[in-house]
Specification:
Elements lengths: L2 H7 L4 H25 L6 H30 L10 H30 L6 E2 L2 E2 L8 H36 L10
Antiparallel strand pairs: 1-2
């Protein structure tokens, strides 16, 4: 096997790389937007505009995450470089928790929105409500949505720190698997 071929074989496909970075940028943007919009006072017209934008972007990223999960199920991932068993377990656990959070986060937001009188609009299209106007259930789902946001932030920091450790300390070129 030539060096060029081994380098290519150890990378994700172009579509998986594109999905990774599109989802990553989308999630970081959604987290920033979410933290900003909840700090705004109630009744501000800008706040409702941002909330609707957040819902549409969140559901769009959710659909991309589902597409990525299906693509991952259909294709094998490139092998990890040699590393200790605990590092491999930590990488798998972090990645699994990231996927779980990327699915649970939009579901909790959508369900929270289903228990209010406004519902959810996806780029202007009203989506079905799965509930009724119930402040208690709405707050539970939005509370879960907020906790998941902080968990997702922690997982992203851990994921990025692990990738940078492999790149700069271990120098095993792990980051090249996901760079465009």
């Amino acid at each position: 096997m030539t060096m060029a071929h081994s380098r290519t074989a150890a990378r994700y496909t172009g579509s998986m790389i594109a999905l990774h970075w599109l989802i990553a940028l989308g999630i970081v943007g959604l987290l920033a937007l979410g933290l900003y919009m909840v700090s705004l006072p109630k009744g501000l017209p800008l706040k409702s505009t941002l909330i609707n934008l957040h819902k549409s972007l969140g559901l769009t990223i959710f659909l991309l995450v589902l597409l990525r999960i299906m693509a991952r199920a259909a294709h094998t991932s490139p092998p990890l470089p040699p590393m200790r068993a605990w590092q491999r377990a930590a990488a798998r656990t972090t990645q699994g928790l990231l996927y779980l959070a990327m699915v649970a986060m939009p579901l909790s937001g959508y369900l929270g929105s289903s228990f209010n009188r406004f519902g959810t609009r996806f780029w202007g299209i009203a989506l079905p409500k799965w509930g009724w106007d119930d402040a208690g259930l709405r707050e539970r789902f939005f509370g879960l949505h907020e906790v998941l946001a902080w968990v997702l932030i922690a997982l992203i920091v851990l994921h990025v720190a692990g990738a940078l450790k492999h790149q700069w300390i271990d120098r095993d070129n792990l980051l090249a698997r996901m760079l465009p």
